[in-house]
Amino acid sequence: xxxxxxxxxxxxxxxxxxxxxxxxxxxxxxxxxxxxxxxxxxxxxxxxxxxxxxxxxxxxxxxxxxxxxxxxxxxxxxxxxxxxxxxxxxxxxxxxxxxxxxxxxxxxxxxxxxxxx
Length: 117
Known about the structure:
- With 117 residues, the protein is mainly α.
- The radius of gyration is 26 Å and the shape is elongated.
- Helices cover 70% and strands 3% of the residues.
């Protein structure tokens, strides 16, 4: 009975048992770019030196560095986007709240344009 829910289509995939790749923003892309970075760095080091063990070490280091680098880059951009969305939402709320009142900045602009015409 415990295994019946394991094949649900919406079930998330947890990497290393704690990183929910499907629901955590930037996790999927970070792991993918980290894998690509490890492949490039490990293969490049192996082709340059022909040392297998050292190339594997370089590949693991490349994975960690690439994954963390892209993780911080992506999370920074996500935070900037959320701040912009919050500011826009607040501005739209204020516009609806103040529309037609004496506090409406658009009312002063249109009133001044009408008197000039």
